[in-house]
Amino acid sequence: MEIAFFLYSGMTALDVIGPQEILCRLPGAIIRRVAKHTGPVKTDSGIELLAEYGFEQVPRADVLLVPGAGSATDMREEPDTLAWVRAVHATTTWTTSVCTGSLILGAAGILSGLKATTHWAARNRLQAYGAEPTCSRVVEAGKVVTAAGVSAGIDMALLLAAKLAGQMVAQGLQLAIEYDPAPPFDSGSPDKAPDAVVARVSTRLRASFQYPDAVPAATQ
Amino acid sequence: MEIAFFLYSGMTALDVIGPQEILCRLPGAIIRRVAKHTGPVKTDSGIELLAEYGFEQVPRADVLLVPGAGSATDMREEPDTLAWVRAVHATTTWTTSVCTGSLILGAAGILSGLKATTHWAARNRLQAYGAEPTCSRVVEAGKVVTAAGVSAGIDMALLLAAKLAGQMVAQGLQLAIEYDPAPPFDSGSPDKAPDAVVARVSTRLRASFQYPDAVPAATQ
To answer: What CATH number did the domain enclosing B123 receive?
Structure first.
């Protein structure tokens, strides 16, 4: 079972590392970190992740995961990336994204007519790709599974683990990474965080994403 | 504000990447990934993380984070590591660990007489270092903050963010990474997972950790 993680400059490290921590432990899993060219890839938190494979070396995968990016590193207009994502998607059992990775799937034409999600501050960008924006943390539409912002990749990976290896294996992996969340605040979504926090983060993310209309649903 | 992440061969990538995704975005944060020697460090999920600094280059830090390891990569018996951890701890505002990273703090003599936590399957190893094992997901004891297994580092980092930059900043970071957890199962701790899952994961982790007596509290 070949699982391809797409890496690109400016991506968010946790979008990949969260799911990888679960998926790499599935029976028979072979992880391939793939970028346009092999080599280190700088993420938006500064750490570099190594892409051991270039596009040409990985023409197919059982599972494809496309992470998001905290800034406007615009893979959505990069023809080679979109062509590779489309080609690999044609071979997958599951095509997945975390955070604004779904906008790359959208730009590749994969979300047309499908329910999908993305980071809350970018959710209204999905319509441009013919997708139906959905508020769920993880959205399944046929073989395409999209997750909400950054940390939602962990929840998505547990769902995938159950589909790929059964519920007991998925539960065991959740136990192994002791994923029994207890955040000190309940501010993880725009309808739960204080208004002042939502306003400030919206403004910052709008600037970062360069999406002038990325106002979260809760404040519209 | 200098934040030092200790990297070592066999460590768990998410123990560092989860907290880093939050802490690197604090105002004035300077992240330093530190290993005994500079260079790539292989984690237990196969991905390499780059240590840009060696021990000698980072003699102090405002925050130190020591991650855990999925296998018995025994930093607890590595004199240079323990000496560096001790020396940096003497300079910190906060000394922290994720998962079995607390056993390294323990071996360095830092947990003596303190409440602390670690991965559930290793919790009874804390007593050997004079610590008082505690079941909470995040345990604060003076300036030493220990987190439970792997994913608990995210919760700990949000707590630290509030202490370092205030609650609104921490809430904003939680919102930015959309940390509004919704795992598909409720199996993240041994008292919640099905007995058969706990038994299987216990056996596997005992072998991996090489802790013959690492039976979780819930099954003792």
So the answer is: 3.40.50.880
B67 Cβ contact list (under 8 Å, min separation 6): B5, B6, B7, B11, B12, B15, B16, B97, B98, B99, B101, B153
- Return d(Cα A135, Cα A168) in angstroms, integer: 28
* Host domain of residue A85: 2-184
Which of these, A93, A102, A98, lies nearest to A154 by C-alpha position? Answer: A98
pLDDT classification of A215: cutoffs 50, 70, 90: very low
In a domain, A126, yes or no: yes
Whether A192 is covered by a domain: the verdict is no
pLDDT 10s digits, B57-75: 999 999 999 999 976 557 7
CB proximity A217 to B under 8 Å: no
Number of structural domains chain A divides into? 1
- Residue corresponding to tokens 């930059």: B165
Query: ipTM exceeding 0.90?
Result: yes
The one catalytic residue among B4, B29, B99, B161: B99
Q: Dump pLDDT digits (tens) for A10-49.
A: 999 999 999 999 999 999 999 999 999 999 999 999 999 9
Residue B31 included in any domain? yes
> Which residues of A fall within a CB distance of 8 Å from B181?
151, 154-155, 179, 181, 183, 188
Optimal mutation site among A33, A135, A177, A203, interface B, most CBs of chain B within 10 A: A177
Residue B219 lies in a domain: no
pTM metric for this prediction: 0.94
